[in-house]
Amino acid sequence: MGRRAGTLGLALSLAGACSNDSAPAQEPAKSAPEADVEPTEPEPKCRDWSTLDLDEVPPLAEGKHAPLLDTVWRRVLEKHFDPTLGCLDWAKLREVHAEKIAEAANPQQAYAIVNDLLGELKQSHLRLFPPTPDEDTPGPVAPPITVRWVDDQLVVVDSRAEGLQGPVLRGATVLGIDDVPIGKIVEQVRARHPEHAFPRMIATTAAARMSCQRLGQFKKLKVTNPAKEQRNAIRVVPCLEPEGERITLGNLRDVPTRVEHRLLEQGRIGVMHFNVWMLPMVKRMEAAMTELRGKGMRGLILDLRGNPGGVGAMAVPVARMLVDEEVSLGTMRFRDFEQELNVEPSGDAFGGPVAILVDEGTASTSEIFIVGLRDHGRVKVFGSRASAGAALPSVIEELPGGALLQYVVADYRSPKGTLVEGTGIEPDVVVAETRDDFAAGRDPVLMAAHGYLNEQLGPVADPTADPSVETGPSADGAADSTGAAP
């Protein structure tokens, strides 16, 4: 996925709220009724920054990067859903970071300082992306490798990469990328992100480091070889075009989109996976559902592992495929209004049991969709760990000079008030994963969901039927990549 599609917006969270309640004055101690006791001062209220007259804000000291800092500072002040900005002294933070950016020796340092300012809010979907790619900016092409943090290692969980010296196998551990030890990359990511976000961010950072800016480029990887007792190996692998139909919406440009589906045992259980939320994909999902149901699907596994979000409006028509009554997926609270994510039933919704698969890469719109349906008891969630907890609705805007600013515009409340931002969605069924599972081609999370749906559906009508897995073509005509079948 290209630079402008590297982070995808719409999600949820609870903004840094502050209390406006006054603390009550304490009663004098009964043992000393005559003592004078000073009443407790009421806690100061958070400042409402929407009342600030921006025309009266003093200009920053002249400097090459000062206008960029000022633009970002103003945009957040004007657009963030919380006018108190989490009770921060936003004016003071402008001054502090202006002093730092005046000493920036290069654009990279300046962008880091601006992102430090955004980091003061401690929320997802707040980031400034440079106009030219840096080492942590995902390129438009990459080796067909997926990595995740498993067993305290960066593990290859899916791979179709053929290197000059041999393939990169599933279950391999990544030890280095372009001669940079993975330990050094781990240290950098831990220094930048809170612990709960580390598994997602190390995988995202590693994927960016493994990507390329154009076809014909190669990446040098140091990995272990599961076929040879995890001995170290060097693999030089080519960067390839990602599979999928390209879609452009606003600043999300040339996003590769895939909708994949297949049937499992006796055709009772279907698996559907899509990699991002983009509205034009809805028709392909509807076609996939129609095909699966036409072949007798009675239970559905919706695989949202690694799905980072996208366009939030897509959550409503996808949910409509699964509900037979009017429901709400929750409420988005903008600064000046609220938007209810109401889902009206289609009259032909799939009524069978639904299991959803999540991992640390399941974020944003994916989280809104999942928690909304789970609050209504419609789905059961399976995974090895909580989802990303990066769920604040946001927009991406191109600034003068070509930089991209992603900033939060709304809070989100699930139907039952479930908190997702910063915590993620805890699976209903937690399933342990190991590097050995991936090396052996096992998918324990998928297997657990498959077992659950079989229990819900009851005994197979014909116990002599062939229990082998049936794999159908995806709605896109692309190969299925949802993992090994149980």
Instruction: Measure the end-to-end span.
Output: 30 Å
Q: Please give the order of strands in the largest beta sheet.
A: 12-13-14-17-18-22
- Which bin fits the share of residues in helices? 10-25%
Q: What proportion of the residues form beta strands (DSSP E)?
A: 15-25%
Number of strands: 22
The outline comes out as: globular
Total helix count? 10
The overall pLDDT average reads 87
Structural class: alpha+beta
The poorly predicted ranges are: 1-35, 464-486
Sketch the major β-sheet: 6 strands, mixed
Task: Report Rg.
Answer: 25 Å
Describe the protein.
This protein has ten helices and 22 strands. With 486 residues, it is α+β, with helices and mostly antiparallel strands. The strands form seven sheets. A six-stranded mixed beta sheet has the order 12-13-14-17-18-22, sandwiched between helices. Strands 7-6-8-9 form a four-stranded antiparallel beta sheet. A three-stranded antiparallel beta sheet has the order 1-20-19. It is globular and about 75 Å long.
Key words describing this protein structure:
486 residues; 22 strands; disordered N terminus; disordered C terminus; alpha+beta; 6-stranded mixed sheet; 23% helix
Write a compact overview of the structure shown.
The chain is 23% helix and 22% strand.
Map the helices and strands:
Layout: H1 66-79, H2 90-101, H3 107-119, E1 127-129, E2 145-150, E3 153-159, E4 162-163, E5 166-167, E6 174-177, E7 180-181, H4 182-192, H5 198-210, E8 218-225, E9 231-238, E10 245-249, E11 252-257, E12 259-263, E13 269-274, H6 282-294, E14 299-303, H7 315-320, E15 327-333, E16 338-343, E17 354-358, H8 365-375, E18 379-383, E19 394-398, E20 404-408, E21 411-413, E22 429-430, H9 435-439, H10 444-457
Parallel strand pairs: 13-14, 14-17, 17-18, 18-22
Antiparallel strand pairs: 1-20, 2-3, 4-5, 6-7, 6-8, 8-9, 10-11, 12-13, 15-16, 15-21, 19-20
Helix pairs in contact: 1-2, 1-3, 2-3, 4-5
